């Protein structure tokens, strides 16, 4: 008897649903879009750009909100991005990216930046209100001057959250792309109320760590932090369904 296709829950923000959905459906899988988080712009104090040596992006959203907040600013700063997807988006927005770490995580980005900069170099770090302090702290500890600009907040999307319990009845794997999506998920449903057949998949060690604090279930995490690598990880595992 032929197995039915996997059904996966896409929890990304509304404006980011399409890339994951397209990739999952290309595998012949079913995708349920349920954006459990929403992004809200915050008032931002944009520093003097002409005096900046580096601009650091740690997500596609940081590029997006920076572009909106500082579109008129002129700058000659070099650009660093945490990963290939962020870099590709930044390039598409007209930025020339100078630095991408081999490992797509903040720890590797900090190491690479420290190797490419000198004490006293001025760095602007656009970020979410809920971003980890790690990157800024590491750079400051090594004598770099860091101005972090809080551009947006990530909040639970109540309109989607009320649909979650019913949606989970048809799901094999829930996909998370950020710790904030994990927090939102478990705001809307208790861990013990998630059907037993449901597994979790995510991108990034920080997201996996957030999941580990909420559940003891198996979490599928690729070594490379991309959608393509996550799909390969899912394909290489036999899911009971």
UniProtKB/TrEMBL annotation:
Q: In which pathway does it act?
A: Porphyrin-containing compound metabolism; protoporphyrin-IX biosynthesis; coproporphyrinogen-III from 5-aminolevulinate: step 3/4
Q: Which Gene3D superfamilies does the record associate with it?
A: 3.40.50.10090
Which stretches make up the Tetrapyrrole biosynthesis uroporphyrinogen III synthase domain? 20-231
**Top-rank taxon:** Bacteria
Q: Which GO terms describe its molecular function?
A: uroporphyrinogen-III synthase activity
**Biological role:** Catalyzes cyclization of the linear tetrapyrrole, hydroxymethylbilane, to the macrocyclic uroporphyrinogen III.
Q: Which family does it belong to?
A: Belongs to the uroporphyrinogen-III synthase family.
From the Swiss-Prot or TrEMBL record, give the protein name.
Answer: Uroporphyrinogen-III synthase
Q: Which organism is it from?
A: Alkalicoccus halolimnae
């Amino acid at each position: 008897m032929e197995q039915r296709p996997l059904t996966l829950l896409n929890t990304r923000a509304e404006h980011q649903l399409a890339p994951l959905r397209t990739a999952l459906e290309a595998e012949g899988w079913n995708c349920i879009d349920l954006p459990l988080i929403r992004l809200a712009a915050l008032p931002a104090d944009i520093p003097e750009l002409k005096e900046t040596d580096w601009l650091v992006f740690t997500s596609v959203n940081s590029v997006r909100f920076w572009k909106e907040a500082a579109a008129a600013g002129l700058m000659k700063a070099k650009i660093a991005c945490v990963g290939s997807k962020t870099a590709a988006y930044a390039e598409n927005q007209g930025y020339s990216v100078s630095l991408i770490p081999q490992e797509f995580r903040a720890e590797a980005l900090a190491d690479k930046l420290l190797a490419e900069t000198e004490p006293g170099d001025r760095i602007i770090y656009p970020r979410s209100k809920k971003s980890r302090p790690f990157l800024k702290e590491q750079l400051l500890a090594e004598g770099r001057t860091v101005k972090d600009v809080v551009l947006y907040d990530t909040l639970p999307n109540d309109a989607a959250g009320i649909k979650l319990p019913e949606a989970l009845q048809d799901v094999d794997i829930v996909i998370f792309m950020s710790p904030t999506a994990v927090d939102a998920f478990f705001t809307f449903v208790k861990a013990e109320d998630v059907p037993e057949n449901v597994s979790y998949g995510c991108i990034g060690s920080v997201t996996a760590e957030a999941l580990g604090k909420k559940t003891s279930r198996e979490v599928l995490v690729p070594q490379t932090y991309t959608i393509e690598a996550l799909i390969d990880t899912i394909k290489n595992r036999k899911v009971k369904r």
